[in-house]
Amino acid sequence: MSDDTGIVRLGEEGRLSGAVIHAGTIYLAGQVADDPSLDAEAQTADILRQIDALLAEAGSDKRHLLTVQIFLADLADFAAMNRAWDAWLDPRHKPARATVQARLADPAWRVEITGIAALPALPLPRPSTGFA
Q1: Residue 68's domain spans which residues?
Q2: DSSP assignment letter at 6
Q3: Residue 45 — φ and ψ, nearest 5°?
Q4: pTM for this one?
Q5: Looking at the domain assignment, is residue 129 inside a domain?
Q6: CB-CB neighbours of 64 under 10 Å
Q7: Are 18 and 1 a contacting pair, CB within 8 Å?
Q8: Total domain count for the chain?
Q9: pLDDT tens for residues 23-33?
Q10: What CATH number is associated with residue 81?
């Protein structure tokens, strides 16, 4: 949804938007796994699929992520989370990243991820090289 503020809100739910776009920047809400019974690696993979979908809806992709914050309920899941992250990450376009331990709102959630991405720049028009 867009309004006269120039702000676009995607994936609106009761209390939040899944993503908000303003001035060429995409702000992602904290994403959690759809199935909290999964282990940390599978939850992370599910969350990263959700992030891909939100970025695509916004007109961007993971190559344009600027920064990512990962919240783990237990730092013992760090290696499992990184396995899913490494399988998903484009190694030529690594965002800045922080990972911290945090008590998440639902005890079944092992991972929550949020981030900020850029909208891709529009290609510049090419100058005419031919004669009429």
Answers
A1: 8-118
A2: S
A3: -60, -40
A4: 0.89
A5: no
A6: 19
A7: no
A8: 1
A9: 999 999 999 99
A10: 3.30.1330.40
